[in-house]
């Protein structure tokens, strides 16, 4: 799938939903009934936090990668700050999906909705907002197959985010895995998060994958908004809404991520890519999966894994201990 953002197509570098929210007449919105913000205000606040968290992860990722590539013997310093920042980003991404449902709640007339649910997603679903079910289905793979398992393990089951570095060819592939006990009590990569309990996530893939999903989610929610308004006889054309300088800086930084520095099993799951062309008419292109990424040889790579004891566990299993 390919997502292109530029001014030529009537948009901006920001996520697609921004092109529509300011244009919607207040008479077609019900945010005051629900005592929530205007949908553009909801979306702006969510994007502001994401811009901060993505930028924080990118800054630390580049710094850690540079430091690791100066070390030849694998005795790296544990990238604790990078893990902390990335965990915060994943939590913010999870909250962002909730914020997107809150945006759509503003299109539901509470006086005719049959739902009494206090949970936003359930409320919107039970209100049968046109296009919402398709929106949920479109994001199910990302949410249920990746984001929810990772954040739930970290937040509710004391899963621990552990760092791993693959090296040996002059490049450092920095990543993480979610550690928890397996059925035998061995501390290992979570089987619910990592297929077979023998893999990890590279930051090179994870950062771009989450950024692609943010834009994809925005594209899908924009379709719901247009469908709802069309049913009421109101039709919108995209009008550029500047995403702001922090977002532009984020895109420029993300474009510097080397998409080829991934872990051995990750090409099978599909690799994301981001291309940014600056200038008077800047263009952003995100792809997932991008089958055109040229990978470096990963033969004879070594790896360093970081973990910590809990005072009782004595057995640990590292990812990639056996060939994936």
Instruction: Specify the helix fraction band.
Output: 40-55%
Question: What percentage of amino acids are in beta strands?
Answer: 5-15%
- Tell me the series of helices and strands, N- to C-terminal: EHHHHHHEEEEHHEEE
- The structural domain count equals 1
Query: What structural class is derived from the secondary structure elements?
Result: alpha+beta
State the helix count. Answer: 8
C-alpha termini separation:
26 Å
How many beta-strand segments?
8
Low-confidence stretches: none
Radius of gyration, whole Å: 21 Å
Bulk shape: globular
Q: Please, what is the average pLDDT? A: 94
Largest sheet: 5 strands, antiparallel
